[in-house]
Write a structure and sequence with these properties.
Elements: H1 3-35, H2 41-65, H3 73-81, H4 90-114, H5 117-120, H6 132-156, H7 161-179, H8 189-198, H9 205-230, H10 234-241
Helix pairs in contact: 1-2, 1-4, 2-7, 3-4, 3-9, 4-8, 6-7, 6-9, 8-9
Subcellular location: Membrane
Transmembrane segments: 6-27, 39-62, 136-155, 209-230
Main location: membrane
Length: 242
């Protein structure tokens, strides 16, 4: 698959992912209210994990159908830096990252045009609630933890795909909940850029420092830790195949 086609697929998948994200919150609130557990944090966490698991499953199918498309630059970078994406290169990511950012803008614009006014007022995307240095660390540390966990789960985790999916979803929900009081959070530069563009602060240095440099640094460090400390050795891989 050529770089341009990959970038177009990334843009499409990213716009679809960001368009559906607000519905995650709506579905979670509706299900929690229906079950009468909205005041129970653990129950809300479990419900959110189930919904996120379903979304991840659907989007993994769509991404595979699009030739391995990605909706998050940090995931693309983490797999490249860990040596797990043989077809990627720094040049291809230099093309795909802007495409993912453009997809983020399209997704946010689409959802803002779709939602009724009362819901639009509650949809503002990631926002910096601390100073930029703390925000940078929050996005970096949380992305580091998320990417490292995803790499371990996918490569060295359980063989059961359903268990893998639930572990990835619970890790994602946990990281998002932890970062809520710091940066929103985003943990996805394309998502942050889409909301920043719509809210007219995409030219701010804080956006690129906190929401781009922070997550991409965290993703790279997570990939290096996994590659040099946790990645299965070639010998063990050969033994499993034999």
């Amino acid at each position: 698959m050529g770089v341009i086609k990959s970038a177009m697929a990334d843009a499409l998948l990213t716009s679809m992912w960001i368009f559906t994200m607000p519905f995650l919150r709506v579905f979670t609130l509706q299900i929690s209210a229906f079950l009468g557990v909205q005041a129970l944090p653990l129950a809300a966490f479990f419900i959110t994990t189930i919904v996120v698991s379903l979304m991840m499953f659907i989007f993994s199918l769509i991404g595979n159908a699009l030739g391995g498309a990605s909706f998050n630059p940090t995931a693309s970078l983490a797999f490249h830096a860990a040596g797990l994406s043989k077809d990627s290169s720094l040049l291809s990511m230099a093309v795909r990252f802007p495409a993912q950012a453009a997809g983020g803008v399209i997704g946010v614009k689409a959802i803002m045009g779709f939602l009724p006014r009362e819901l639009k007022e509650t949809m503002k995307g990631p926002s910096l609630k601390v100073d930029p240095q703390t925000g940078f660390l929050a996005e970096g540390v949380l992305t580091f933890g998320l990417c490292l966990a995803l790499l371990v789960i996918l490569i060295r985790g359980p063989k059961n795909p359903l268990v893998k999916l639930l572990l990835m979803a619970s890790t994602t929900v946990g990281c998002v909940g932890t970062g809520a009081k710091y940066t929103g959070p985003s943990l996805n530069p394309a998502n942050a850029f889409g909301w920043a563009y719509v809210n007219d602060w995409h030219n701010s240095w804080e956006l690129y420092y906190v929401y781009w440099l922070g997550p991409l640094t965290g993703a790279t460090l997570a990939a290096w830790v996994f590659k040099f400390l946790l990645s299965p050795s070639p010998e063990s891989t050969k033994e499993k195949k034999s």
